[in-house]
Amino acid sequence: MAGIHRRLALPEARLVVASKATVPAGFTISSPHDGYLEIYYVAVAPNFWGQGVARELLADVDRHAQNAGVQELRLWVIAETSRATDLYQANGYRDSGQELADETTGRIELLLSKTMG
Prior knowledge:
- By secondary structure, the protein is an alpha+beta fold.
- It contains three helices and six strands; from the N terminus they run H-E-E-E-H-E-H-E-E.
- Strands 1-2-3-4-6-5 form a six-stranded mixed beta sheet, with helices on both faces.
- The longest helix is centred in the middle third of the chain and has 16 residues.
- Keywords: Acyltransferase, Transferase.
- GO terms for molecular function: acyltransferase activity.
């Protein structure tokens, strides 16, 4: 929760919650950062996996970026989560070649980016 609160405190942070039949199904948090829009969270409740919730949330972020005139989107993904990596790549994100080890977990994260256009 601390990470979520920290991201929501960023200037112009944007939280979008998706629901199915009035039940919260997932959310995104994004914020502009040095000329690009960074997506900090794309989270979907496991009982909603495979129902298109993440795709809908990513499409909403795309629309927001286009309306704001932002040309690039970025996000970090845990390297070993092929389900998430495959989803992002299917939605136009490409591996930037940058990676880092998360300070708290030690897991390797990859920077993915998408150019709008």
